[in-house]
């Protein structure tokens, strides 16, 4: 016996996982809806893109698809979380290979008030800023302490908090990508210094292209964000939520362009709470 | 069954650990020597200091001490790794409490050539820079992807790599703290932007004070580091290693001040390989 978890002998391979020890891995948080993961192909595309950035070799797609299907079967709704972490080995931080362990979890679906989709959400600024690290920017990796810290001491009157980069420019929500509409165009962060390139962000950018909505990439100051015509946030679980209030400033929610994108997206609503 | 690890049902509590999912925790890597952890009090002091920074509540000291003693008993040498991670709960990044799970592992002792202590090591610069994040700087937390990336593609002729901060100033080794001797004084990074405040660094700084060696804090350029009279690195396993070559520049190793500190430190040598 050479491992104790909360005082009890522990032989789990997870105890030596490089995911646990270093956060040496990537993950996806995916909607489970009517027995399957919508956009699974996209999710696995993003997973492979992220894994390649860390020089991780994902398991064969067919294997992941089969295991995900087995967890989803006969479930109405939920969340599937997939973690790929570099297989234990090497000495300390030094790793020897690119092989991965995979962990799949089925979690209960979160429930949100229907008003989040219909009337929009209230957002505030987090006091936590994201550090610059271009080598990791955009990747949904397992080093998420900044998001954890940004999510502590959450104000009661906000459904999402926005985080700035080291320059004080607004990059994203703690668990969402951030879009604004200004001058008839759609704007979002390029995520080249920090932040996560979510699957839903990719999907919305593709939709915008199909709908011939011009897209620009930048990181606004909080003041510039406040002057936006519309703001919305996105992630794989919620699809898209309009923002009706940012840091005390009221916004049209949903604004016309947000509404157009939400209709085109047609994302399932996770067991809404009707208040 | 709602979790699969490499395809097999998995009921481990570790599967839902916030340590694995977010790196929401802290750790210590401690020398096991002749049935005990030398400097255990210091290690637990640093653990508590780090945990407080993340608003984590460590288990009672007596409990940790008893479990560590049980893993160390009758062992000649090895490594004890202690991971504290915030207990699962909350929604996504948002956590609900400060309670911790604890994982203790006993690992084999690494073996190093005796020359590392006697004649010193060769060091080079890593191509990976550490991002600035003052909120996390100094803490031995579980988000260590930067160190993992810095440790990939390790050159054959180096025993340690040095990493710069975002300004291009040298902060530390990938798995050690970095000291230099110049102008008769000892210099090391204040670690206020990035890097880890190791237990052995604290101990060496205290020793320097006892020996009336003046200490200054700064981050040198690689050029300034090259001009040092002496360089050495430290961590809990090795104690202290002189640096005999940095990026092609030869250095006195061990230099007189390094030798004085090493003698005062009197750190056990982990099963040296005699070549």
- Tell me the structural class of chain A: alpha+beta
CATH topology of the largest domain in chain A: D-amino Acid Aminotransferase, Chain A, domain 2
**In the CATH classification, which architecture of the largest domain in chain A applies?**
Alpha-Beta Barrel
The major β-sheet of chain A equals: 9 strands, mixed
User: Count the helices of chain A. How many?
Assistant: 8
Radius of gyration of chain A: 19 Å
Q: State the helicity of chain A in percent bands.
A: 10-25%
Description:
- 2 copies of one chain form a homodimer.
- By secondary structure, chain A is an alpha+beta fold.
- Chain A has 2 domains: 16-107, D-amino Acid Aminotransferase, Chain A, domain 1, CATH 3.30.470; 115-265, D-amino Acid Aminotransferase, subunit A, domain 2 (D-amino Acid Aminotransferase, Chain A, domain 2), CATH 3.20.10.10.
- Chain A contains 8 helices and 14 strands.
- The first copy, chain A, has helices at 18-22, 40-53, 61-72, 115-118, 145-150, 199-210, 222-226, 256-265, and strands spanning 3-5, 8-9, 25-33, 77-86, 100-107, 121-129, 160-164, 170-173, 177-182, 185-188, 215-217, 230-235, 239-246, 249-250.
- In chain A, the strands form 3 sheets. In chain A, strands 6, 7, 8, 9, 10, 11, 12, 13 and 14 form a 9-stranded mixed sheet that branches. In chain A, strands 3-4-5 form a 3-stranded antiparallel sheet.
- The model of chain A has no long low-confidence stretch (mean pLDDT 95).
- The interface between A and B is large, with 69 and 69 residues.
